[in-house]
Design brief:
Blueprint (H helix, E strand, L loop, with lengths): L11 H14 L1 H21 L4 H27 L6 H9 L2 H21 L1 H10 L3 H7 L4 H12 L3 H32 L3 H39 L6 H4 L2
């Protein structure tokens, strides 16, 4: 599965293929991280609603931790140097401050662009797709990560737009399926609490899958873009991406 010995092309098929190859090969680690950081917290929040502001902030931090860990796992798989789930989590957690700032900067810019017209917001999202992976793997500051992502995506933005649309359609279908299944379970259960728990678990599972695919897909795009433009690394991923 390693792409170190080749100069990969950045195509929709290549990104999708490598994304699901990583998900399949590292299913135990990715599933555990997604369940711990996304599925369980969201299910708990739905089953027992509390302060929405605190939940939103907590969900954002946990999502970024998952994205960071998946970047390390994905990069390791693609260069043939697997990284354990624990090591990936610890390495990702060390970058949480920069990731939060990156998310804030990009989110504000994308929101502002979308408020004017939808297309500019989508354009910025595509241009900055690999920014999180850049921030985590290259240990760059937030603003520098956005600039680096902008340069890496140049010349490949239509491809990345197609990948984004493809993943978005799948994500919407999966989340809607989880939501519909949750509502059905809730309506079918005469006991409100058990029904709420089951429906929350279904929706939490859907979110865990969506964020796993999105996180791995973004990291795959980064690695393919970097290798296609700059050539593959010649040393261990832990050294190359520092």
């Amino acid at each position: 599965m390693s792409i170190v010995d080749s100069r990969p092309t950045v195509t929709v098929a290549a990104i999708v293929r490598q994304t699901f190859a990583v998900l399949r090969r590292r299913a135990p680690a990715i599933s555990a991280l997604a369940a711990l950081l996304i599925g369980a917290p969201r299910a708990a929040a739905l089953a027992a609603p509390q302060d929405r502001g605190g939940i939103a902030l907590g969900s954002a931090v946990l999502t970024l931790l998952l994205v960071a860990a998946l970047a390390h796992i994905t990069a390791g798989e693609l260069v043939g140097q697997p990284v354990s789930g624990r090591s990936a989590f610890e390495a990702g957690a060390s970058r949480i401050g920069s990731l939060l700032l990156l998310a804030l900067l990009s989110g504000l810019a994308e929101f502002g662009a979308t408020a004017l017209l939808v297309a500019p917001g989508v354009f910025l999202f595509v241009c900055w797709m690999p920014a999180s992976a850049v921030c985590v793997l290259e240990k760059r500051p937030a603003a520098a990560s956005l600039g680096r992502a902008w340069r890496l995506t140049a010349g490949h933005r239509w491809t990345l737009t197609a990948v984004t649309v493809l993943f978005l359609v799948g994500a919407i279908a999966l989340v809607l399926g989880g939501a519909i299944g949750g509502v059905v379970m809730l309506e079918a259960d005469d006991r409100e609490l058990p029904g709420r728990i089951v429906s929350s678990l279904l929706i939490g599972l859907a979110y865990a899958v969506v964020y796993s695919v999105a996180g791995v897909g973004g990291a795959v795009a980064y690695v393919l873009l970097r290798f296609a433009k700059e050539g593959p690394p010649t040393a261990r991923v832990a050294a190359v991406f520092d």
